[in-house]
């Protein structure tokens, strides 16, 4: 390990504390002290660039708390959407129950019971969203976003159960109709369609005492559920909420189930008796796919899986656009509900002060959260940028003789600051005073930045 020296000179004018430095470029080593420092560690060099003074600037900065106004606004908007879905399910359950009672349709009554389960599920989704929107506390310092993920996982389970139920029912009807198909063909000339459309024990129940009323209720249910699907889906895409996306697909599953009932009735009127179960199988496949995708994404979030790399691309441009950032590495992200947590290592000027590096870190965090509202928190680690170190400094150690390398090793075992102070005091006595020695460790080498004060009439060449 070797040493490099970056030396700042100050005239003695009531120097009590060095708060800023003015840069001088020393073309030739001006004193025997500097030659002694260089000779003792590395040997003489007429064009040694190690005495090029590093200019340091301190930029004032202020600390701002992350503006959560947009987060609160999106949270209120999301809660309104969940409330809308809950109110719609309550209205549909009530309307279907009343329609089923007036029309005598057992299918509508069964659908009303299903809507009651939708009310329960919408209530669970609303409670999950509320829990996830709660602010951080002592027990949950990273927030409550995982409650939203758990809610999405619960809805995905319901979607899988719905898909399985539709598929089982469709296969059961398909098997029954396939078994009775020859008898129906033989008896078709002797029997007309019976009012009520009984097929293999399966009753559609729409053409009862008030078929128009039952049919209209089914159409209203389809329209309401499809509308809720699009409203919830767009909000989920805008906020990145997996719970909203899952709930949107739950609304669509209900709408499609009602569509299948209409298709089945239409097929019965047209004489296409297999249209109902085939449509049911197709729909169950769609719902199954949505349930698997939602459940898979929820599990990935629960185990803190990394977000896709393409989702991090916009963050890279934002980071590199911040003044003072020389590079970055280890950019990672993980989701907790609709919130995104980002980790990144940024590279800054290796000779900058701690406060200046902190200022760059603060600006990176602020710019990321302002440009990408889905980011809830940014965890930043600061690294010195090796690209900012002149190659003449890092490569000089390899050109040292063996004697100088041994001297360097011996010097490392002593107090470096005392050694430097003793050398300068020996050659300058009271004329030059060491104010501060700042050590930098870069690529396995120690760089010393020495700040000294001297009489104003002392010449520097």
Automatic annotation (TrEMBL):
Keywords: Membrane, Transmembrane, Transmembrane helix, Transport, Vacuole
Main location: membrane
One GO CC term on file: vacuolar membrane
Membrane-spanning ranges: none
InterPro entries per UniProt: Cation_efflux, Cation_efflux_CTD, Cation_efflux_CTD_sf, Cation_efflux_TM, Cation_efflux_TMD_sf, CDF_Transporter
Ranges where the Cation efflux protein transmembrane domain occurs: 84-303
Membrane topology of this protein: Multi-pass membrane protein
Annotated ranges, domain Cation efflux protein cytoplasmic: 308-384
Keyword Transmembrane carried by entry: yes
GO molecular function, one term: monoatomic cation transmembrane transporter activity
Subcellular location: Vacuole membrane
Function: Involved in sequestration of excess metal in the cytoplasm into vacuoles to maintain metal homeostasis.
Record's protein name: Metal tolerance 2
Annotated organism of origin: Olea europaea subsp. europaea
């Amino acid at each position: 390990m070797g040493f490099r020296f970056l030396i700042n000179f100050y005239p003695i004018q009531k120097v009590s504390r060095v708060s800023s430095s003015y840069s001088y470029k020393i073309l030739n080593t001006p004193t025997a002290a500097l030659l002694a420092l260089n000779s003792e560690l590395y040997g003489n060099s007429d064009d040694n660039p190690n005495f090029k003074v590093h200019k340091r600037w301190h930029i004032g900065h202020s600390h701002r708390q992350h503006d959560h106004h947009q987060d609160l606004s999106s949270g209120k908007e999301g809660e309104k959407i969940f409330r809308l879905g809950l109110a719609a399910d309550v209205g549909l359950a009530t309307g279907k129950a009343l329609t089923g009672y007036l029309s005598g349709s057992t299918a509508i009554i069964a659908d009303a019971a299903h809507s009651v389960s939708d009310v329960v599920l919408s209530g669970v989704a609303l409670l999950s969203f509320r829990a996830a929107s709660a602010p951080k506390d002592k027990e949950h310092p990273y927030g409550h976003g995982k409650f939203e993920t758990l809610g999405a996982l619960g809805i995905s389970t319901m979607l899988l159960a719905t898909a399985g139920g539709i598929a089982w029912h469709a296969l059961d009807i398909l098997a029954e109709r396939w078994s009775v198909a020859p008898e129906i063909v033989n008896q078709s000339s002797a029997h007309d369609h019976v009012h009520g459309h009984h097929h293999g024990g399966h009753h559609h129940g729409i053409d009862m005492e008030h078929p128009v009323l039952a049919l209209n209720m089914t159409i209203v249910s389809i329209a309401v559920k499809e509308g809720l699907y699009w409203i919830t889906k767009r909000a989920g895409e805008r906020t990145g909420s997996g719970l909203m996306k899952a709930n949107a697909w739950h609304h669509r599953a209900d709408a499609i189930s009602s569509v299948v009932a209409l298709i089945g009735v239409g097929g019965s009127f047209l004489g296409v008796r297999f249209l109902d179960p085939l449509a049911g199988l197709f729909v169950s496949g769609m719902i199954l796919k949505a349930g698997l995708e939602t459940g898979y994404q929820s599990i990935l979030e629960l185990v803190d899986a990394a977000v896709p790399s393409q989702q991090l691309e916009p963050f890279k441009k934002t980071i590199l656009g911040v003044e003072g950032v020389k590079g970055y590495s280890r950019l990672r992200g993980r989701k907790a509900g609709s919130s995104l947590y980002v980790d990144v290592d940024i590279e800054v000027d290796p000779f900058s002060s701690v406060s200046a590096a902190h200022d760059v870190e603060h600006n990176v965090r602020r710019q990321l959260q302002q440009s990408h509202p889905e980011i809830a928190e940014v965890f930043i680690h600061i690294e010195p940028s090796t690209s900012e170190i002149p190659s003449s400094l890092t490569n000089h150690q390899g050109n040292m003789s063996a004697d100088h390398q041994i001297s360097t090793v011996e010097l490392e075992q002593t107090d470096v600051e005392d050694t430097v102070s003793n050398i300068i005091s020996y050659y300058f006595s009271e004329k030059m005073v060491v104010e501060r020695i700042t050590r930098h460790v870069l690529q396995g080498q120690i760089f010393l930045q020495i700040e000294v004060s001297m009489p104003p009439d002392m010449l520097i060449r």
